[in-house]
Amino acid sequence: MKAILETRDLTIAFGGHLAVDRVSIEIPEKKFTSIIGPNGAGKTTFFNLLSGQLSPTKGSIFFKGNEITKLSTTERTRMGIGRSFQITNVFPNLTVLENVRLAVQSEAKVRYQLFAHFLHYKEFVDKAHELLKTVFLEGKASQLAVNLAHGEKRKLEIAMLLALNTELLLLDEPTAGMSLEEVPAIIDVIKKIKQEKNRTIILIEHKMNMIMDMSDEVLVLYHGELLAKGTPEEIVNNEAVQTAYLGGEYDAELT
Ligand SMILES: Nc1ncnc2c1ncn2[C@@H]1O[C@H](COP(=O)(O)OP(=O)(O)OP(=O)(O)O)[C@@H](O)[C@H]1O
Fold it and tell me: How far is the CA of 101 from the centre of ligand 1 (A)?
């Protein structure tokens, strides 16, 4: 197994509180890894450390064997780590297609600066259409982003994240704030990315059915520490995990 991402003793303290506490993990390339844990376990903070929003108090992070612990978010994105909220600046008064086209165009400029003027507008539009198909939003291409339903906006964000063309995707609760009817559509989008794209995905989620269905491996954080890791089956049968969830911090969604 080749690890695309590795953390060693990754730790961050806020005041005296260890939000992430000596977490050492290896994320296998092209696999689907989920991170679960009760509320306040440190999942989002861990993502913030991976994407560079936060600097660790201790420990290190390696991407494809290179240390990235001190790199900025932009540098990490350029290297191939994409996080959905980095591109949540959807322009509400542009169409869905234009939003994705701009994301494709800006990515092309960053990556192919030397050749930028040889790239054509039509190629950007074609790529944008392709991404909209991936997220099942093609039918809304000419609508203004402002008029999308919440779930559709999340799909648009995912399309814009895909436009960044990063090898690693960090998805932080992509179904958060959605109505029950909207959730299956996002699950379909993520499944499609998993099937179609040659990418490594790390997902933070509370919805256990999603975890069970999609993950190759599950990591469990608890009070900032890595409590367990294993296949979805191993995790649901893990006694320490059951105790962590049932020991007074039970999350109603984790059923
Ligand atoms: N900037 C900050 N300053 C101080 N404390 C913080 C900060 N960010 C997070 N924390 C604390 O760190 C702990 C971990 O929070 P985090 O948001 O990472 O948990 P989580 O597992 O993502 O929770 P949830 O499932 O509710 O989103 C919490 O106790 C939180 O209050």
Answer: 34
